[in-house]
Amino acid sequence: RFAALCALFCLGLSSTPSAAEPLRIASFHTDLSGRGPGLILRDILRSEPPVAATLDVLEMANADIVALQDFDFDAGEQALSALAAALSERGLDYPHVLALRPNSGRLTGQDLDGDGRNDGPRDAHGYGRFSGEGGMALLSRYP
To answer: Cα–chain-centroid distance for residue 115?
Structure first.
């Protein structure tokens, strides 16, 4: 689905008139993930130092669309919505968010790393100590 979304997005870019306003796109590695399932939301709500630093960088970038890496996935997009709300308090509105479930932390049930166990981070489809660790997300001013 992400590849199809990117293809549609790129098609939309190529059909815009040359006199259109510039579109600012940013990519940022947040370094917020990996602390545990749901903890990224807690950190955002508490304005922990790594979150504040991320907000500072995103505020300076002032992009129309932001691709975030190393951002833990949660099915209800609560963490991503909380980050968007924190950015809104700084004057950056991103009403459109997208986070697709990554394969990190999804256990295979197999002992892939040969350590005699089948429930470790290296036994998952993608390395991860919990399902959704280190995912990617999009913040956008546009649908």
So the answer is: 31
Q: Which residues of the chain have pLDDT under 70?
A: 1-19
Global confidence as pTM: 0.77
Q: What strand order describes the sheet that includes 136-140?
A: 25-29, 65-69, 136-140, 96-98
**Residue 29 tokens, joined:** 């590695």
pLDDT digits (tens, 9 = 90+) for 19-41: 688 999 999 999 888 788 889 99
Backbone φ and ψ of 52, nearest 5°: -60, -40
Instruction: Give all strands (DSSP E) within 4-128, no chain letters.
Output: 25-29, 65-69, 96-98
Token reading at 40: 């990224």
Tokens representing 87?
């950015």
For residue 119, give Cα distances in angstroms to 30, 72, 73, 95: 27, 19, 19, 37
Cβ burial, residue 132 (10 Å; 0-12/13-18/19+) = buried
**In whole angstroms, what is the distance from residue 57 CA to residue 35 CA?**
21
Q: How many residues does the chain have?
A: 143
* Residue 26 main-chain phi, psi, to 5 deg: -130, 150
